[in-house]
Design goal:
two-stranded antiparallel ribbon, two-stranded parallel ribbon, 10 helices, mainly alpha, about 10% strand
Length: about 210
Amino acid sequence: MLAPKPGGLGYRIVKRAFDVVFSAGVVAVLAVPTAIACAAICADSPGMPFFRQERVGLNGRTIRIFKLRTMVADAHEHPERYMTAEQLERWSREQKLDDDPRITRVGRFLRNTSLDELPQFLNVLAGDLSVIGPRPVTLEETYEFGNGRDEFLSVKPGITGWWQVTERNAATWENGDRQMLELFYVRHASLALDFRIFVRTFKAMGRGQ
């Protein structure tokens, strides 16, 4: 694959303009579906329909991203209540798990359609996220990048990105592919690469991935 040349100042200006316009449109158009999803979440399991995750943003700044709740309310406080020892070990390292037993019925639908990500467009409008960029990670996960940590943190994280639309589940911290894919985006971020990711995102959503 021929890697696009990284963009400069003009790219960053266009990228931010796209972030604001696209995110404002998404928030306006999908306000009613989001409200319906919130009602379904509350009917399916006890707890608030929204939750916030603490992540590391541009230049190492702490950010809190919004999502629709797809798990039981105490999923993060007490994962041991729902997971086997093997599942808990994998989740502790990767912060993701295939067939996670904590996911609710409504939550599974929201994840398969990516609707749980909708509130993150508010984070984009606030400037904490971009529509396209590396996946927001925890402080502990930033150290998986080793000497590339500062380089990884030099780019604003995004709702969707190169890792999500390529290997995703096959690319883990353990095998090093996750780091490689995220740093590939950081080093080649450009309009051409962002457009490629944007198109692939909708294809992945159509396949329920």
